[in-house]
Amino acid sequence: MKLLNEHFKVRMFRILFCVVFIFCAIAENVAAQNHFLGADVRYGHILCNDAKARMHINSPEKGVSVYWGYNFEGGDYWHSFWKNPSFGVELSCDAIDNAIIGNRFGVLFFIRPSIYKSKSLVLDGFMGLGLSYFSRIHNPYTNPDNIYIGSHLNALINFGFQTSCFVTDHLALCAAIKFSHSSNGQLMRPNNGLNLLQFELGAEYYIRKYKYAVAEVDKDRTKANGINVSLSPAIAHSLYDRRHYFSAAVSVAYSRRFHPCFSYGLSCDFMYNGTNITSPYSEGRLSENFSQGFAATFECRWDAVALRMALGAYIWHGKYQKLPYYERVGLFYYLGKTKSQYVGVSIKAHAASAEYIEWTYGIRLGNF
């Protein structure tokens, strides 16, 4: 027994040594980069769209979050154009004073493009995409009034503005106003979604000294046209028979990159939604699941990361959709040195009401 205890102690010492070594290596690397740590507390309120929502979920929210971020200060043009933006990941916990909705836990990746920077004051935009977990969801017997959150796991989308005031070279006091949306993209119904308006107060600590100077970089004036082909599968949940159905979209798009950080385009979308024929207004034909539309697109890029928005109109079988137009908003990542392929996730919606969540793989066929 004594020999076993000695072996255990040696093993634990080795594990502890490895952990300390790895921690020191990470700490040394972090100290050499422009990383920062932050935390905030917030107060918010659920935004209600109708009288039923005001009766059921008209409630305040209190929360905390911690996050890690990286502030770019390199020599690329997009660093300079966005005034050295920040990327990071945030963990959050929100207590909602409502027995119908319960509490929310979230994790998201965020982008903070700077709008204004000086030695002591920074104004950033904020865009975040991630996942949220709700402690209480719809149940037809125990929680029938929760028509807003149909599953524990949901998409989490935040956007807003944050201002930071530096009191030292390392420490900043922060305030923010954000709009926060949670929805499962119709993976489970009912799913009206949940919207909150949040006010935040917090602080950030920069591992190195904060640098506010923006590098002067020559503008890349390369302009390019391209053809993009993408496939976006999805799963949609029918409100009528409570079953899941395959959905997808195939898009062929023309894009014009008129600036290193921006592009616009026009896409032709061929869409399939298996839930259409489950509607009581359907005639039961398989062709009712298909539709086609054209959409205008606009894309903001931070090197390999892109935020893409689209507004489209149906030109065929639009009568089987909720509205004659549709929207898309998604976050994409371009792969490889040539960035000719991309993957991403987006939400297809009608008047901001989600139809489903799409998972996209696309190819840029070439420049001309």
Radius of gyration: 24 Å
The total domain count is 2
CATH class annotation of the largest domain: Mainly Beta
Q: Do you know the CATH topology of the largest domain?
A: Porin
Encode the helix/strand succession as letters: HEHEHEEEEEEEEEEEEEEE
What is the level-2 CATH architecture name of the largest domain? Beta Barrel
Low-confidence stretches: 19-32
Query: What order do the strands of the largest sheet run in, or round the barrel if closed?
Result: 1-2-3-4-6-7-8-9
Helix content: 10-25%
The general outline is flat
Which class do the helix and strand fractions yield? mainly beta
- Helical stretch tally: 3
The residue-averaged pLDDT reads 84
Polypeptide structure, described:
β7 and β8 form a beta hairpin. This protein has three helices and 17 strands. It has 368 residues and is mainly β. The protein folds into two domains: 34-206, Porin, CATH 2.40.160; 224-367, Porin, CATH 2.40.160. The longest helix is centred in the N-terminal third of the chain and has 30 residues, at 2-31.
List keywords for this structure.
single chain; mainly beta; Porin; 2 domains; 8-stranded antiparallel barrel; 8-stranded antiparallel β-barrel; 3 helices; flat
